[in-house]
Each structure stands twice: as C-alpha cells, then as structure tokens.
Amino acid sequence: KQAYASNGSVVWAFSASEGLLWKKTLPEGSELRGLFWNSERLACSSLDDKELHIELLNPANGNVLWRRSFRHKKKKMGNPPVGMAFSQDRLALAAGGKIFGLQASSGETAYERPVKSKTFSQWTRLIHHQNHFVLSGTEGAYAFALAGGEPLWENVGFIDPIYEQRKIRQAAVQLGLSGLYFHEAPEARESWKQYRSGSRSYSDAAIT
C-alpha cells in the first residue's frame, strides 16, 4: 500500500516498507486541488490563474501517463469545483464553465458540456457516486452520467445551512454598523469618516 502527501506544489509517495518512493513537482505556478487514485492510477489536479491542470501518474514511479490543461480564469470565475469522478475508463471534472469527460487511458476528450454561468459559479464540489457524479453548491445539486455526461436530475432551491448562517451574520453586522452610523454624534461621524478614508484606525474610531 502507498500513501501520498503534498505541500501544494510537490507530491510525495510513500510506502510502509520503503519510505519515500518518489516525488513529483506540479506545473509551475499551480497549486494542488486534489489527489484521486485507484490501484493502477493516480490523478492530480492543480490550478493556476488561467488553467486547471490534470495529470495522470503511474503510482509505482510517479511518471506522467498523460497531461491535460483546461482554461479557467480564476480571477473571473473563482475556484472550480473541488473533486473529480474517476472510474476504470472515465475521468470527469468541471472547469471553465463546462463539464468534461476524459478517457482514463489516454486523456482524450470523451464529452464536453457547457453549463450556464450562474449554475457553474455556485458549484463548490464534485462527488463521484458509482456510475454518475454530483456537482453541488450553495443553491442546488446536479447529477450527470459518468460515461456520457448526460444530465440525470437536479435538486435546486434548497439552502445550504452553513452558507445561510454566514449571510445572516454578515447582514446583522452590516445592520448594526449602519445603525451606529445613523445614530452617532457628529464627533463620532467624523471619526468613522476618517476611518473609511484610511487616516484613522478602526479601534481609535470605535472609541470616539
């Protein structure tokens, strides 16, 4: 059995009997997004500012079997969903507003399906379930067939409880600060004005 570790830019493989087996440096300027493996193959995904990189490695020695890169503008679109679906003959991922299915043996594209930008932008994770995969986020979950990428079902309109709690807390803080601003004395109003301009610290303005 082997174990894998990474510091974000390098991947190491270890075994209980031999210790370090090999190390692999990820594409320059990219950061690891995930490791996915079975007994025969190891898939690494990494992201830089413009592309999501997928490398399929031989677990025995770390040699690259194939490599693919997918356009994904991080500053415009944020991070792509974490995860991929990985079976004996198919590897599925999401990047650049699309879902892709690759032939696991060669990395060649088996299918490519565009997704509405609003839907894609809220996805945060991709989870593999036997012969299909699910992309989910703050506003819904969408299932696709792994073999051909066909949409199977969608469940939208539910609320992610953690995300909703964050929004409630943020709104409460904003409302509280707004109330402070509109009911403050002239001296305090001037202090907050100086804080927003950068000429006064937060703690100093709050004491006023």
Explain what you see:
The chain has 208 residues and is an alpha+beta fold. Helices cover 24% and strands 44% of the residues. It is built from 5 helices and 15 strands. A 4-stranded antiparallel sheet has the order 4-5-6-7, with no helix packed on it. Strands 8-9-10-11 form a 4-stranded antiparallel sheet, with no helix packed on it. A hairpin with a 3-residue loop joins strand 8 and strand 9. The radius of gyration is 23 Å and the shape is globular. The mean pLDDT is 84.
Question: What is the overall pLDDT average?
Answer: 84
Strand content: 35-45%
Task: Give the N-terminus to C-terminus distance in angstroms.
Answer: 63 Å
> If strands are numbered along the chain, what order do they take across the biggest sheet?
4-5-6-7
Annotation, overall tally of beta strands: 15
Poorly predicted regions = none
Topology at a glance:
Blueprint: E1 2-6, E2 10-15, E3 19-25, E4 31-37, E5 42-47, E6 51-57, E7 64-71, H1 74-77, E8 85-86, E9 90-95, E10 98-103, E11 109-114, H2 117-122, E12 123-129, E13 132-137, E14 140-145, E15 151-156, H3 161-182, H4 186-197, H5 202-207
Antiparallel strand pairs: 1-2, 2-3, 4-5, 5-6, 6-7, 8-9, 9-10, 10-11, 12-13, 13-14, 14-15
